[in-house]
Design a protein that fits this description.
Two copies of one chain form a homodimer.
Chain A lengths: L1 H21 L3 H17 L1 H15 L5 H7 L3 H16 L7 E6 L5 E8 L2 E6 L4 H12 L3 E5 L5 H17 L7 E3 L7 H5 L8 E5 L2 H10 L12 E5 L5 H13 L8 E7 L3 H14 L3 E4 L1 H6 L4 E2 L13 E7 L2 H11 L4 E5 L3 H10 L4 E6 L16 E3 L7 E3 L5 E12 L3
Parallel strand pairs in A: 3-4, 3-6, 4-5, 7-8, 7-12, 8-11, 9-10, 9-11, 12-13
Antiparallel strand pairs in A: 1-2, 2-16, 14-15
Helix pairs in contact in A: 2-5, 2-7, 3-7, 5-6, 10-11
Chain lengths: 417, 417
């Protein structure tokens, strides 16, 4: 029972830090962010060494993509430092009055933004999540529990050491960010039962991780699930624009969750559009997997199977399907999509309106690339991820989405009658 | 496997109604509400007869409080009809633009309020929840799955018949509200696994019901948990106001979740305050259970035991504890409260500020009765209940809290670079 005790002690410690973090003033939180940026820069070699330990241990057991996500480089560390500075520059959401009213009986009611409390991040091999999550949670007045993948244990430990040092130097409790390493595979289910200690769980990772968290959690969860994004080229699309937007959505950075995975094309425009986009895709080395109708226009496309619809390739692969109508496109997306980001290319405003209304996704685009789903691109600042849930936060989840609210009611002796 | 099939068919039916309900215009939704108000009034005897069947079946097996919650009366039915009219008069939240921006690249981004989708209500014996939940969900563009207690089966069936009739008459799919009766005790865990069919679960009821739902659900849950509300009389309280506010918070309607259950009193004001409030409580027949210090001022108070702190009596009983400081009061509330509603009575503005900041509850009051926690009293309109969760909705949960949002992004061919 040693690991349970270790976890509970960490949770208790974190919860005890809450009151100081909840009410920390903006200057102090920004001091922390500045100090951490500085630490990341001056202790780069310490971080790279820790990361080397993880990489050596990983050896050749893992896929290149996995190893890439695990790897820290001087550039990636500099990116973390820049993220600290960016978060420092964002307005502090805590204490904002969202709404207020004075009732006929004189009661003054304010709805005020407050921190959520203790937020647990459960993630895989990316050590940069350790910093991103901690700094966003902290700026929003929350304490953070981190449970990263064991493959990144040395890197995470080193990063948390810098975070704790910076917290202490800025006069904040260093227990406001805690890494949980005990317990092995049993730790996550155990953690997910501690409803008295943790207010929100954010899982970031693959399908299995999310499924495990949803299965075990008694604590509210906001899922950052995969992005199976669609681009639909309508019969009234501008051909040049359709080619440019589709190509960008697939090719510009295929490893991201907002990259398009499936292309839907209206049958009336397919004969003119498909050969043109196929030419671009071929030149960029994109593997095409098409429905039978698609393959009449793109003979070198491989046949798509049922598992291609709804597949998140995160690679230079695209599934292509010709549809008979706008309705068929919408139905396909609502069936196979993950409610992340979907786009229509069309000059028909009525079709665009219908698509944007009926597609059930966090972000729906008219004549633009799905790649724009990003807190920075939306002007919302840094984000902890893209929520594919509908409850509390949808789409890019930034500082505001890491808060809740409470009602403050001031009276002078009002009684209910 | 018959009951599973029955439940899945109902869920599928409900999901298929979504697109019509999601995009229904305000007039049509209000037509439905008007028709239902009319139905409730003209078919009162039909409802009372169905309710009689439930009451006969309940017999003498249940507590008077249970039977009271189960009972329909002409007045209660009229209250439901009035609720329909009230919800019709509320502004339609759907389609509201919450935020918008045009980015330097010309992308126009709107954050727009949309329905959540299919909402499942899981509740106990109160048939009025059937109507309240359905009309609020529907006005916010959602479809509703109802799973009421089996004790109210006839009443719920009759009410849902009127709801379906009114939906049909107003040109909306009658499957937008569905009652699930199959499956017995296994139905709720089964329902709570249907993540593809249900977007949100709202349990309303006792501790066991909530615990069951939280344990089994793979779907996001917003808990409407019990209200263990506190009133704290600070050392600098106005004595007359403290007596009036405390008395109102306990006695005005003790069976509600926003009634005060525990009274905390600063030791410096205890000698003057406790004898006065005890006199009022005695006259009103309130049973007092006090800590040892309390009993030195109220000799007839029964000794409070550890289980009295955090107890929701829903009756004319109050737990009383004398505390040494504001901090002790705050710590007591954060330990034993249910994050619902808590009040401080004081003329010390600094103490009030500290209390309102540090007490972790949906509604925190300064110099007013906890009884005001209510959508109507806050000017928010009708509510589906009081959320004791922090995620998505906190405190009175009205129409806006039954919605989510999506981002609509209009471009003219923007590409990410």
């Amino acid at each position: 029972m040693v690991w349970q005790k270790q976890i509970l002690e960490k949770l208790l410690e974190t919860k005890e830090a809450l009151s100081a973090i909840n009410s920390a003033d903006t200057r102090r939180k920004n001091d922390f962010l500045g100090l951490l940026a500085n630490q990341l820069r001056t202790r780069k070699s310490f971080l790279l060494e820790a990361n080397q330990q993880d990489l050596r241990r990983a050896g050749t057991e893992y896929s290149p993509a996995f190893v890439d996500r695990l790897t820290l480089t001087p550039e990636r560390i500099e990116k973390m430092a820049l993220a600290c500075q960016e978060v420092a520059s964002l307005p502090d959401p805590i204490g904002q009055v969202i709404w207020e009213t004075t009732r006929p009986n004189g009661l003054h009611i304010q709805r005020v933004r407050v921190p959520i409390g203790v937020i647990a991040l459960i993630y895989e091999s990316r050590p940069d999540v350790t910093v991103e999550a901690s700094i966003l949670c902290l700026k929003a007045g929350n304490a953070t529990i981190l449970r990263g993948g064991k493959e990144a244990a040395f890197s995470n430990q080193a990063l948390v050491e810098l975070i704790k040092y910076s917290l202490k130097q800025s006069g904040l409790p260093e227990t406001a960010v805690n890494l949980i390493t005990a317990g092995g595979r049993r730790a996550v289910p155990f953690l997910l039962h501690q409803t008295a200690m943790v207010d929100l769980v954010i899982p970031r990772g693959g399908e299995n991780l999310i499924a495990t968290v949803v299965k075990h959690s008694r604590i509210p969860v906001i899922k950052h699930y995969k992005g199976v994004c669609h681009t639909y080229v309508d019969r009234q699309a501008n051909l040049d624009m359709a080619v440019r937007v589709t190509f960008n959505a697939k090719v510009q950075r295929p490893g991201t969750c907002n990259a398009t995975e499936t292309l839907l094309v209206h049958r009336e425009i397919a004969p003119r559009f498909l050969p043109r986009i196929a030419q671009e895709f071929r030149a960029a080395g994109v593997e095409m997997r098409g429905c039978p109708v698609t393959r009449t226009y793109i003979p070198d496309a491989r046949p798509a199977t049922e598992t291609d619809w709804g597949q998140e390739y995160l690679a230079l692969i695209i599934a292509i399907r010709v549809v008979n109508s706008l309705t068929e496109a919408i139905d396909h997306i609502n069936r196979f999509g993950t409610r992340h980001s979907d786009a229509i290319v069309t000059d028909d405003l009525e079709a665009a309106r219908e698509f944007l209304t009926k597609v059930d996704a966090a972000c729906v685009y008219h004549n633009a690339s799905t790649r724009f789903t990003d807190g920075g691109q939306f002007g919302l600042g840094a984000e902890i991820g893209i929520s594919t849930d509908k409850i509390h936060a949808r789409g890019p989840m930034g500082l505001e989405e890491l808060t809740t609210y409470k009602y403050l009611i001031h009276g002078n002796g009002q009684l209910r009658t």
